[in-house]
Amino acid sequence: MLDAIAAVADRENASTPLDLVQTLRLLHEGRPSRWVADECLAILRKPKNGFIDRGLPPGTIFASKPGQVDGALCDAALVSLPRRPYALGVMTKYAQCSDREVEEFIAQVTETVHSALVVWDRSNGFGRVVYG
What we know:
It contains 4 helices and 3 strands, in the order αααβββα. It is α+β, with helices and mostly antiparallel strands. Strand 1 and strand 2 (72-79) form a beta hairpin. The longest helix has 23 residues, at 99-121.
């Protein structure tokens, strides 16, 4: 991904938001083993300068992996809600926007998704808010 010669030759590493979310889901499930998953999540919980965290309320527990190359920003996070944790992956490709505009976009997407999933976390199986 950071190899300029490979990039010019179209030999890039590639991923999708689904790949990122599935990886986080597997870690949450304790795979490939509980020990490995716990170690990985501990590393991913370390504070960093990401993009998803900017859209989460202060005090929210999450594990994330941001990334950036010229013209693209991405981030993925496993957010620990009390009843229903969730994973979110956002990837962008841009040419007409500044990094700051794209960072704000990812934060806005995160705010929207998080606010909806907080309601789901507090709801019973019929959608009625009954917790917290």
